[in-house]
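All the exercises in this workshop are built on plain-text protein records. Sequence and backbone structure share a record, each on its own labelled line. The question running through the whole workshop is how a given chain folds. The record below serves as our worked example for the rest of this section.
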Amino acid sequence: QAQFVETGGGLVHPGGSLRLSCEVSGIFLSSTCMGWYRQAPGQQRELVAVISGGGEITVQESVRDRFTISKDNDKSTLYLKTENLKPEDTAVYYCNKCVRPAHWGQGTQVTIAA
């Protein structure tokens, strides 16, 4: 059973950056499409960035020039580098499979405030 542990969130000023990590167990990143999702207060969870098993990347247009998704298959860890953060990026960030998401982890809170 796939499990995800997200870390790296925090409180940063606008323009700041964070590197989020997701430790994955129960599946192989080399053969699984993975994504970073986020859920802002009062909003539905949305998919932000995707990386396929083979490493192909797709990033939501609204964050394409600021967020970078990557992974280390050997460490079974997914990353999301976020830069030039804006207040509207405030959300709980989760990782999960792209297709048929498994049970969600606790996520990591990202708060952007002056």
Remarks:
- The chain has no helices and ten strands.
- Residues 62 and 104 are 24 Å apart (CA to CA).
- The beta strands are 3-7, 10-12, 18-25, 34-39, 46-51, 57-59, 67-72, 77-82, 91-97, 108-112.
- The mean pLDDT is 97.
